[in-house]
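Changelog note: in this version the structure field was regenerated for every chain. One regenerated record is shown below for reference.
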Amino acid sequence: MALQYKENQSLAPPRATDPGWAHGTMVNGGRQKIKCKYCHKIFLGGGISRLKQHLAGERGNVAPCEDVPEYVKVQIQQHLGFKVLEKLKKQKEANGTKTSHMSYLQDREGDDDEDLGPLKKMASRRRGKNILEGTSNRTKRRKRQNFVASRNMRQSFGSQENIELADVAVARFFYEAGIPFTAANSYYFQKMADSIAAVGPGYKMPSYNSLTGKLLNRGIQEARDYSAELRKSWEVTGCSLLVDRWVDGFDRTVINFFVYCPKGTVFLKSVDASDVTKSAEALLSIFDSVVQEVGPKNVVNFVTDTSPSYKTAGKLLAEKYKTFFCSTCGAHCIDLMLEEIGESDEVKDVLAKAKRITQFIYNNGWVLNLMRKRTGGRDIIQLARTRFASIFLTLQTIVSFREHLHQMFTSASWMQSSFSKQRAGIEVAEILVDPLFWSLCDQTLNVAKPLLSALQFMDCPDKPPVGYIYDVMEKAKKSINVAFNDKELNYISHLKVIDHVWQEEFHSPLHAAAHYLNPSVFYQPSFSSNKIIQKGLLDCIETLEPNLSAQVMITSQIKCYEEAVGDFGRPVALRGRESLAPATWWSLYAVDYPELQRLAIRILSQTCSIIRCERRWNLFEHVLSKKRNRLEQQRLNDLLFIHYNLYLKERPIETTKSWRTRGTLDSVCLEAVDVNMADWVEDLGTMEGEDLSWMDVTVPHERACGIRQGNDMDDSNDSTDDRSSDLTKGS
């Protein structure tokens, strides 16, 4: 338990040892003004003791915390139990001394009674009786308190042993059932443990029949209720229909269909497309059936990946209905930009050398330990939502660890090791001391960083990205210009790649219209319209509003928006341009222009990127299986429906808390690394001699190597594992 309390030690007073400091921070450097890290309530006075009472749920002096995790609450309660026992022990020792002194005084009073008169003797006896009765009552209370404290102590000691036994039991279940270790990152993993703990001893886990019967039925109903709740908003905000294509190692294809709206994303179904994935006509038939299920009048944007057959089928679908747009996934397009940039000779050479560094480090236990010791337990491998984003993020991490790696490969420990004399070790050391390598890394990242930032923005949980993507991409190109000091010769080829992908793959009239209707962009002094933006706006008016009279009204009302007339010009509307989501701003300040308001809300409520969910191919085996029982197939489809919608329901909460995943992803474990970066840690068979086994490798720093988005490289957010902080083991 004590290891956990190191997490926020930097926010505690110097030499602070009280475990309560792991769960609160000093405000303005004062011990008497403390902020709870869970509910963010600030306590004035009472110090860390008051915070612990707040966390433990002790009523009286302070209100209990409603947001504290159950395991933290239990730990603090146990800690306070130890404190009470220690205090009672000291009181008992002190009371023992006082009791001896009282007996001496009573003996003295008894001796003196003989010299007192009858009244004084009676008063003395009465006083002595009261003292003895009071002492007896206090002794009884102390015995009761000691009994309770002793019981708490036994429970606390027992619970520490039980925690270890529980950990082993959970681990055995994972190992025996073959559950992927990444399942420990599930939002519901800790919630399951808390619920079981709340029931107490004797809880019986649900049976196979319960899991496949009544509990599954309940889960289906909850998922359907979630889906129905989101559907209610589609008529007002419209929705984006997302097509996510997955291909496994046997070239089998599964298409997942999702529907996005500002309230959340819902999973519809999965389809086996292995036999039709290259046929635009066959895909069109599948896409058409899904549009009918969602409702053509609700769809505003149909989003696919960059595969030619999928793009063609999407365009044919949009031409058939003429009431919505088809666009390609923004994340795929940015990944395509990064991929093509990586094909240039200089960048390809840089990435090959970076890959050689990670392959060497992650296949040698001793070297990996030495690296993690130098970097404070942090990892080089970084995982993002796409392959090339992961690659360039990993390159960015290598550059940020430049000094650590240089010191590592020039240290006495390295020089004295056998690895420094091996061919692979010599090759990597030469790369890391080569100034040209680092110079080319910097130039490569000057191009990649702005694109990674754009990719991060697409996952923003607060505001639908379609109203910003046009501006974000323009700013990305300007950032590249600035990074190269406007020396066009050094970056013009990369800008051509970005422009080509944008124009040929990504650009949509919807993006242009959303750019124009976004108040945080439009009212900026630097905003300027052009022919592409104007035509995009007109295309959206004609496509999304089929009524000609309404189209005329919209074009006449746009002038009021441009000149900030009426409610558009209210002081509160001026403030809201930056702080509010664009669609929310229109819903508040465009009530006098209902036709334009409806159009703007439907445009600005869309996404331009496919939601990525963790791949669970074992769940898709039933979709791809050719031998099926009809009833069992229905149940398995429902299981998939629950699986995705549980994830999607909690996704906004998780992404709001952090851009990274919960827990540590061990870059030695290919399950955690996933297919995007598996080749960056694979064994090339160049290792010579003996080395440490995987069991001797240092555990990576908690949350220091999780999935990152964009250029989220702020080391100040790193903290130790809640359950383990041994960063230098085996180093």
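Spot check on this record: The mean pLDDT is 80. Residues 29 and 525 are 41 Å apart (CA to CA).
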